[in-house]
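From the methods appendix. Each design record in this collection lists the tokenized structure first, followed by the designed amino acid sequence. Records were kept in a plain field format so they could be parsed without special tools. The example shown here is representative of the layout used throughout.

RECORD:
FOLD TOKENS (364 positions):
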């Protein structure tokens, strides 16, 4: 028995310029990831399986000796178990593309550090190769990250390779601005699940958060994705609490109405990751209480809910002190109008990747 991580041993995460084990490292996350890197400056090159597993073993060996790689420090994925030395990959994340047809106020690919782009290396050759070589196990999990998958150039082929034929369980976050029939087939015929962060219950809030006028298109896509009993089950409708933007029960109740109308049962409640990181996980009790209250209301209406945030998964924060009603109102007003830190958090994102150009233009 010793401590190790399943994802470290059997995971691959494709970034735009590196191949790593995962994207979950809790270290140095305020402005990016610090994952266990297997190949730096990686651009989709073919890697012989032996070489790949040797690289993985370098990290795994640290655990075997009773240590912990710096990148994994405090990660909740570390478990004590009887680890085997079997060599295979069964947990893949693709997050090397970042282009999107929305422009969310909280998007981590939406600041001056990252440029939204689909001009990235093709990922199909390496994945096809690993699949043919028996490196990728049948029944594996494929997680999509990055930008909007339905507008990514290899979307359909990837779904054909892993999803429609049920080779993998596939998890696709999508904003649903564009409907994909291949994605629907994968949901209806195989084990593919979509996560749609709606974050609101009306067009006005949608436009403020997503910064595209596409509420009707999203409603239309969701209705198509929710066409059959099986595909309905495959949808997770998500509500990310974004401080000062949708942090109220009224908006959440409208969100529930939409879910009910569409027949969607599975919901995810989350707190914006950027706020969590900026506060170094010292999330104000106002937001924790709010998330818990939303969870309660949704469950009472018969929904199945899940908390997504690392905060809820990794700690025993169930004991957070409840604010009384006066405190809640006080905090709501304070955060909305007088908290410069929160304002700055999203002001930072206001100009998105265009911030530098904006600043330059202003100077001219
Ligand atoms: S312990 Fe955490 S950071 Fe390390 S490989 Fe596993 S999931 Fe990634
Ligand atoms: S839909 Fe996703 S990728 Fe697109 S802007 Fe929003 S958070 Fe970013």
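DESIGN:
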């Amino acid at each position: 028995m010793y401590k190790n991580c399943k994802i470290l041993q059997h995971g691959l995460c494709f970034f735009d310029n590196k191949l790593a084990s995962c994207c979950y490292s809790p270290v140095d996350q305020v402005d990016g990831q610090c994952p266990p890197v297997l190949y730096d400056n990686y651009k989709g090159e073919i890697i012989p399986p032996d070489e790949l597993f040797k690289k993985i073993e370098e990290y795994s060996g640290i655990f075997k000796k009773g240590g912990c790689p710096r990148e994994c420090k405090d990660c909740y994925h570390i478990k004590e178990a009887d680890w085997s030395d079997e060599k295979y990959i069964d947990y893949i994340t693709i997050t090397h593309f970042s282009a999107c047809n929305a422009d969310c106020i909280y998007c981590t690919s939406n600041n001056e550090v990252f440029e939204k782009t689909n001009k990235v290396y093709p990922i199909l050759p390496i994945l096809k190769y690993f699949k043919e070589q028996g490196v990728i196990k049948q029944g594996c999990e494929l997680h999509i990250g990055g930008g909007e998958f339905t507008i990514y150039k290899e979307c359909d082929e990837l779904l054909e390779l892993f999803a429609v034929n049920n080779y993998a369980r596939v998890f696709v976050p999508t904003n649903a601005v564009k409907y994909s029939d291949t994605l629907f087939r994968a949901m209806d015929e195989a084990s593919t699940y979509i996560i749609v962060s709606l974050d609101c219950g009306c067009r006005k809030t949608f436009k403020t958060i997503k910064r595209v006028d596409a509420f009707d298109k999203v409603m239309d896509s969701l209705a198509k994705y929710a066409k059959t009993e099986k595909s309905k089950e495959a949808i997770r409708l998500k509500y990310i609490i974004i401080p000062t933007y949708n942090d109220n029960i009224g908006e959440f109740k409208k969100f529930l109405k939409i879910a009910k109308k569409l027949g969607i049962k599975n919901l995810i409640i989350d707190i914006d990751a950027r706020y969590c990181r900026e506060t170094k996980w010292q999330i104000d009790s106002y937001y924790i209480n709010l998330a818990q209250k939303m969870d309660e209301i949704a469950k009472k209406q018969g929904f199945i809910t899940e908390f997504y945030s690392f905060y809820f998964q990794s700690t025993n924060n169930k004991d957070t002190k409840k604010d009384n009603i006066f405190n809640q109102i006080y905090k709501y007003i304070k955060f909305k109008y007088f908290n410069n830190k929160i304002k700055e958090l999203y002001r930072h994102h206001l100009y998105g990747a265009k911030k530098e150009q904006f600043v330059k233009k202003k100077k001219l």
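APPENDIX NOTE: The domain at 88-363 is CATH 3.20.20.70 (TIM Barrel).
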